[in-house]
Amino acid sequence: MQFASIRIITDDLAGMVQFYERVTGTEARRPAPVFAEIVTGGSVIALATPATVAMLGSGAPAAGLGGSIIVEFLVGDVDAEYERLRDHLDDVVLPPTTMPWGNRSLLFRDPDGNVVNVFSRPSSS
Q1: What pTM was computed for the model?
Q2: Which of 101, 100, 102, 105 has the alpha carbon at shortest distance from 118?
Q3: Would you say 82 and 88 are in contact if contact means Cβ atoms under 8 Å apart?
Q4: What pLDDT, in 10s, does the model give residues 49-66?
């Protein structure tokens, strides 16, 4: 399992991108209007609007609250990780699902209630 990023949900994406670009001295990548990421060395700060988590319904992280961060881990096989972890997960927010942008994700909460996303990117075939 590889640590991938921290995602911060915000109602002011432009302002947050500008802030983190200034702090890091790194220009954000903007693969979608609702999402940006700043890559510095081996770390990634992902910034996104609430639209990127809307499919989670009432369990979605909200902007500006303590639950606005999603801890993400990149894996080769989300479904295998789900099978490995399922008996140890108390709060599965979203079982393995292919997201509209192609990632396959499993979302659950840690013991403190923070959302964790174990995901894989689409294969480039």
Answers
A1: 0.66
A2: 105
A3: no
A4: 989 988 888 888 878 776
